[in-house]
Amino acid sequence: MADLRTLCVYALPFTGGAVMLFVVQFFFLKYATDVLLLPPAVVGTVFALSKLADALTDPLIGSVSDLSRARGGRRLWLFVSTPLLAASFYFLWVPPAHYSVVWVFVALVAFYVTFTGYNIPHLALAAELSANSHAKTRFYGARQMVETVAMLTAFALIQIVSDSVDPRECASELMLIVSAGMGLFLLGTPLFIRERTVTATHATFLPSAGELMHNNAVVRLLWVWFWVFAATGSLGVMGPYAAEYILGRPDLIAVLPASFVVAGLVSIPFWITLAKRYGKRRIFMAGLVGAVVSLAALLWIPLTKVPIFVTLTACCGVFLSAPSILGPSLLADAVGEAPDHAPGARQGFYFSLFVLSGKVGVAAVTAIIGILIAAVGYVPNEVQSAGVRVNLLYVFVGLPVLGCLVGMLGMMDRASNSES
To answer: pTM for this structure?
Structure first.
């Protein structure tokens, strides 16, 4: 089982990377449209292209980290990625007056690639720290709790920039401090974690397509994760728009998403306990069902009922925390049973595909959001008409509901099978 020291050393330093990721993921689109004054559709496309460019490196990083397990371990990747990640994060917020689109694209690619260089070995490391299935859930639960705290920190940073008189100047100064501080924090895991001793395997650099497709459980989880991540990513990207332009409450830009993540944080031990008792897949499905119900209810309340809107958003956070925890744990179990010549030796590669499916989901939904909000008549920095507010609400609710429903279909025929 996972001891407290190992849980803390593994999970807590990841706060640094998660803070930087969530600031970019949840705020940079709005920052680019409202502060840098770049067209929404252009920024959405830039996000999508940068995610896709990053996606090409995911399997390579995962496979190389697998082959390096017996030669320096995964900690080497964490050491090398940290300073590059911190630097690329800072440069993202200080584009020059000219060629802003090109600068943003290059900085986004650098940021996402270096985050991958830390994130995939970090995910794979948790699957290797213990052979116990429930212990893996605890590792990913601890990581999810850290990510939730990081979200709160990110939303506070977002609120500071949003409320400043000069958001661009504020961002350039604040993000320099964030990049340095969070970068130092990230070094905690490679400095203090104790990796399990592994021996060299004869695994090839990349598995064959047949080897991958033969593991049906992994393929199905990748498909489901694409849709689940599209759902959660959509809520994150649309959150600032929902607060300022749907509810007409810019002071809730941090409060609205904070209600989502705090509720999810509080519920994590609850989901871990239920998963141990009733099985990971059943609880995964229950979370998706609850999220759909919570989101659909938003369509039936007046937009003047802000407390109810915030409460239902918080309920959605509770339910979506279940698949967020259990998705990586289910993958770790599936990879441990992989029918290759070195079971479990592909952790990095399969987790890279897991991360890749999520990235593609976020890239797709971000591009769609940029296009949709332009199509429904959204005008930056202006009070939106009643019709535009309703249309933005449909985007806020519709995209994540679609993701959850398709994710449920992907898991449904396995929900009745024996559980971990």
So the answer is: 0.73
